[in-house]
Amino acid sequence: MKRKTIHVSQETGKFMFCLFFIFLPCCCHVCFSELSLDQTNTMIELSRFLNISDWNLPGSEMNPCSWNGVLCSGQDNGSVISISVSGFDISNSSFLPVVCKLKTLESLDVSNNSLSLIPDGFVTTCERLLGLKHLNLSSNKFSSSPSFRGFSKLVVLDFSYNSLSGKIPDYGFDGLVQLRSLNLSFNSLTGSVPVNLSKRLEKLEVSDNFLTGTIPEGIEDYQELTLIDLSDNQLVGSIPSSLGNLTKLESLILSNNKLSGSIPESLSRIQTLRRFAANRNHFTGVIPSGITKNLANLDLSFNNLNGSIPGDLLSQLKLVSVDLSSNQLVGWIPRSISPGLFRLRLGSNMLRGPVPSAAFESLQNLTYLEMENNRLTGHIPHAFGNLQSLNLLNLAMNEFTGILPLSFGNLTRLQVIKLQQNKLTGVIPDTIKLLINLLILDISWNSLSGSIPPSLSQLKTLSNMNLQGNHLSGTIPENIGDLKNLIELQLGDNQLSGRIPVMPPKLQISLNLSYNMFQGPIPASLFQLDRLEVLDLSNNNFSGEIPPSGSLISLRQLILSNNQLTGNMPRFTHNVLVNISGNPGIKSRNKDEVSIKRRPTGKSKLVMVVIFVCLGVLALVAGITTVIVLKLSRRFKGNNNMQVDPDEEGSTVLPEVIHGKLLTSNAIHRSNINFTKAVEAVGHPENALHQTMFWSYYRVVMPSGSSYLIKKLNTRDRVFQQASSEQLELELEMLGKLHHTNIMVPLAYVLYSEGCLLVYDFSHMYNLYDVLHNQTSDVVDWTSRYSIAVGIAQGISYLHGSKSSGRDPILLPDLSSKKIMLKSLTEPLVGDIELFKVIDPSKSNSSLSAVAGTIGYIPPEYAYTMRVTMAGNVYSFGVILLELLTGRPAVSEGRELAKWVQSHSSQQEQCNNILDVRVSKTSSVATKQMLRALSVALACINISPGARPKMKTVLRMLTRL
Ligand SMILES: *[C@@H]1O[C@H](CO)[C@@H](O)[C@H](O)[C@H]1NC(C)=O
Ligand SMILES: *[C@@H]1O[C@H](CO)[C@@H](O)[C@H](O)[C@H]1NC(C)=O
Ligand SMILES: *[C@@H]1O[C@H](CO)[C@@H](O)[C@H](O)[C@H]1NC(C)=O
Ligand SMILES: *[C@@H]1O[C@H](CO)[C@@H](O)[C@H](O)[C@H]1NC(C)=O
């Protein structure tokens, strides 16, 4: 098959070759441009400045019009009209004045480079260009700009994503009489919203700056405006009602400012307005009636709006999305809701009364419905069963009574259902088994009774189940272990009793059986959950001895208090908080052992390193990376004593090196690394350091005496690419070519009869997680944390690449603080970059796919999309940034840090409390920077992947702190 293809392409080649000669005479005319000698010379001059490979091919100087990014006009390509050098990583701007020697130039795009300076010559030559209409300078490092007054023909000026600072008027945009689009978003500009602009202006984007003052009254003079984006600034005052005179306005975005006053009714006069976002401001008063008459999207969330929701607000036919959450709205939910509505968020208000059942009968498109944290009463309408598109239903924290409607069984698309903290009664209906896509079921803190239906275990995709705080009785269904994807099970505060069955194997966040009526010995099977972090069996009647704890290798907290246990305290080789109070029969060796203290803290770094090397093995087991992705055919054998796989023990025949390759160009490493020694060394148990789901780690001393870190791929799992070692080698070689100070690149690889080894510098030994959370050293100060954050952002941006890098982005399926290695307290390295290349997601059939990564870092959308994305990496980075800012781990006590921060960051005062006080209290500068970094982190963990900034932008935002 392959040979045939080659054959065909050779034939085609010959054919093309002939054609070339046949048509040569007329081809000439097209190939060799009519570009004037003048312009040709200018282009050649430019090509020397720019070093773009395609522009410098031998012979290419014959026809600059064919160069990548160059556009010529006219049938005979008489003149250059457009040049785009976007994404070539250009940092030297001396080419800019040369460009403007092209008198015919109409469009210049230099976006996505590293330009920092606009040379004076650019203005003097370019402002003479009579045709220059489009100038795109976005995504560079410009910190100042000349006056553009002379560019009288400019129509579009994009200066977004730079480092411009100072007041806008100083930039002189006022002479641009033809300007229709001005984008200054994502800079550090101060002053007020510019007004002296061309009256032809259609788009004004100045979001994400430090603009102050009010929305100028005069803005109504810009009758052509279709888009106004003033979001993420510090604007005060109210929305001028004269905005209602802008008859062509389509989008008005005022989010995240300090605007106040009421929402002007005049906006409803704008027939073209489709999107109005005024969320996260200080708006007060009632929402005017008619405001949604023409809108598709309305966002007024996080304000202080009061009064009731106007009766016509939700009924307008063009509406797609309405968000009124986190205001002080009162009254009832309107009785009429538009049938096309896709998203409705009314959470955290003071809405009362029953849900208007009839209104929900025919909302075929409703996908997200959130009404949590109100005072809604009555029954959950049976009509909800008709919401066939519903993915998310959140009615938590209301006063709903009655039973769970049987019609819920119709909601087969439902992924998240949250009904906790209501007054629901009756039993959990058997129809719940029909919700085959359910991921999260939270019906805790109600008054549900009866037993847990065994059919629940048919919900194969379920990851979190919370039935805590009800009146459930009987036993736990015998087949609950069938919930193969369950990572959290909360059954506390019920009246459960009887035999405890084998639990779902992937439980990780928490298993809570506290405050029930269980008795007898603790089943040994509970102590075999090797991923579990919190086990709470307190306040039952368990008796007998505590089972051996050897398999609880991920445990952080064990709560056994108030039972009738006897015998000895469990011993752990790693940090576990144990509470066994209220068990009179437990022999305490000494008082301190009621709660095992964390390890003593070492003062100097030397001590820290020593501790790390000696105990690091244990610490790493404690913090073992638990990856929930794999559908393992056999349980992961995480042995505490760090033995290598049993099959390798006692093997006398040395495994054979199939192929080894040095990837580094460093001469010292090249002479040190010995493949045979590497292969031999991983066969010796004493060289093993630790093991994670994907890798086993070894320290290997080469014959030269230098140590190296070796990662061995646990290849037997079926998610690994088994297809071709050739492919794997290609990928590894590609990775070996990466050069960046913030990524951990393998120095060499070895394929041998039992798998694949990757060789690294041994100095990269401690990881960020341990340094931040294991408290073996002094508190890391803000300067170091900031430097670590910037370094990680640099590493990830590099991996994500740019157009000019000429490769696909390298994505990180499992990005967490444990994957960030530290060369020093200021130099992070992003590790495990190989993972994406060596696992094959299509081989995994678990619900979260091979995608998921580590709990606490997994973006919410992965549950739906099952795909690793750049936006997903940004989310995980956001969580790491939060760890640096709060000093808390990504998951603690069963709660995800990201969610905790999101729920505590709406108020400025609360933000201060989120920060790690050990660090933020050291100086007001630190506090200020940390608060700004917090807003970057919040942007990264945005629920909506599309709203998260790109990694390159995140980096820019961080360096601008
Ligand atoms: C031009 O780019 C190539 C790689 O694309 C590089 O090897 C070379 O050093 C560059 N030359 C200059 C003058 O920057
Ligand atoms: C603009 O709006 C104001 C009040 O909102 C109104 O009095 C005025 O007539 C309008 N001007 C124009 C030109 O429509
Ligand atoms: C529901 O959404 C679909 C697809 O977006 C759209 O075609 C349809 O008109 C919508 N239904 C209603 C009732 O608006
Ligand atoms: C929803 O479920 C109820 C009861 O389970 C059933 O009577 C009704 O026909 C279902 N509706 C739809 C639209 O499937």
From TrEMBL:
Domain Protein kinase, chain residue ranges per copy: 683-961
Membrane topology: Single-pass type I membrane protein
Cellular compartments annotated: Membrane
Alphabetical list of SUPFAM superfamilies matching this protein: L domain-like (SSF52058), Protein kinase-like (PK-like) (SSF56112), RNI-like (SSF52047)
One Pfam family matching this protein: LRR_8
Ribonucleoprotein listed as a keyword: no
Molecular function GO labels: ATP binding; protein kinase activity
GO cellular component: membrane
Entry keyword set: ATP-binding, Glycoprotein, Leucine-rich repeat, Membrane, Nucleotide-binding, Receptor, Repeat, Signal, Transferase, Transmembrane, Transmembrane helix
CDD domains, alphabetized: STKc_IRAK
Signal peptide region: 1-33
TM ranges: 606-630
PANTHER family listed in its UniProt record: LEUCINE-RICH REPEAT-CONTAINING PROTEIN DDB_G0281931-RELATED, LRR RECEPTOR-LIKE SERINE_THREONINE-PROTEIN KINASE GSO1
Record's protein name: Protein kinase domain-containing protein
Protein species of origin: Capsella rubella
Taxonomic path: Eukaryota, Viridiplantae, Streptophyta, Embryophyta, Tracheophyta
